[in-house]
């Protein structure tokens, strides 16, 4: 059995710091162990974690995306990396909440950053990069849950049938380089500008996934969703775009719910994944109902 990692000791053992460096756990992470290191005037975040195959997280991909996001002016700089650890500049700022991103001004800043990422990260991306197709992720999650004898096994068949219907509704897509995890906690505001962090799930994808995730994860209302689509595409959404968007929004919510189901049986972090699963299943079912009503 693998020995548990002491994140503080692991962070301080990196060959970056003076002997006076100190470290404290950084709250908020629900996938990785995060540590804030202070070394004189320098402050940095150390993200502790190896590849996570059950979530298709490959650290080479996170590193490439993080570097490209910094080069594009979207994310803090990568200071150091080695197997099991990624070190980035610390941004002194406020972590966004869903209620923050329901504010129109902050939502506009967040969408501008997402559009910037879609447009400009590919200009700086080096080496191979993964694709992120939510429906493949859902199928793989279902297999992982079956193998792990999850308490959610009885509902998996129905969820996969619904996912198949949503995949058919999305249809043909355009490709952008997406963040693919637009939880409010991945947006920071330093008082002057917004930052987008945590590129674990970055990869080529439809822009509708980031747009749907932004809406689902932050409980945006219909008027803001219409604004979101109009601002992104430069024209009001027609019935076809609404249908494809609502299908992808439901899939984004289902992915978050099934991600949490997998965490329930695989994660050792101290977090109430059962409650998180229940919350996102409710979000998914509401999004699915909206899709079906509009179809």
TrEMBL record:
Pfam families: APH. One of its GO terms (cellular component) is cytoplasm. The keyword Isomerase does not apply. InterPro entries: Aminoglycoside_PTrfase, Kinase-like_dom_sf. Gene3D superfamilies: 3.90.1200.10, Phosphorylase Kinase, domain 1. Keywords: Kinase, Transferase. Transmembrane segments: none annotated. The keyword Transferase applies. One of its GO terms (biological process) is phosphatidylethanolamine biosynthetic process. GO terms for molecular function: ethanolamine kinase activity. Residues 23-242 form the Aminoglycoside phosphotransferase domain. PANTHER family: CHOLINE/ETHANOALAMINE KINASE, ETHANOLAMINE KINASE. This is Choline kinase. It comes from Tabrizicola piscis.
């Amino acid at each position: 059995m693998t020995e548990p990692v002491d994140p503080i000791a692991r962070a301080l053992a990196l060959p970056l710091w003076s002997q006076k460096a100190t470290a404290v756990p950084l709250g908020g992470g629900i996938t990785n162990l995060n540590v804030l290191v202070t070394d004189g005037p320098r402050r940095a975040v150390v993200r502790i974690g190896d590849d996570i195959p059950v979530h298709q997280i490959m650290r080479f991909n996170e590193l490439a995306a993080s570097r490209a996001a910094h080069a594009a002016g979207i994310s803090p700089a990568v200071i150091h990396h080695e197997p099991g650890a990624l070190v980035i500049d610390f941004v002194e700022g406020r972590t966004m909440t869903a209620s923050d991103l329901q504010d129109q001004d902050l939502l506009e800043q967040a969408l501008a950053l997402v559009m910037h990422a879609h447009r400009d990260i590919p200009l700086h991306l080096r080496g191979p990069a993964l694709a992120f197709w939510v429906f493949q992720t859902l199928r793989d999650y279902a297999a992982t849950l079956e193998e792990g004898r999850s308490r959610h096994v009885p509902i998996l068949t129905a969820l996969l049938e619904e996912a198949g219907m949503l995949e058919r509704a999305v249809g043909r897509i355009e490709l952008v380089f997406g963040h693919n995890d637009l939880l409010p906690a991945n947006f920071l505001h330093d008082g002057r500008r917004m930052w987008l962090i945590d590129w674990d799930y970055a990869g080529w994808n439809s822009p509708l996934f980031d747009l749907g995730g932004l809406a689902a994860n932050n409980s945006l209302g219909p008027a803001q969703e219409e604004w979101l689509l109009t601002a992104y595409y430069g024209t009001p959404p027609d019935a076809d775009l609404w249908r494809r968007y609502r299908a992808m929004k439901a899939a984004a919510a289902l992915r978050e719910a099934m991600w949490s189901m997998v965490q329930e049986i695989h994660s050792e972090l101290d977090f109430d994944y059962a409650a998180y699963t229940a919350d996102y299943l409710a979000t998914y079912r509401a999004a699915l109902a909206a899709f079906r009503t509009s179809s």
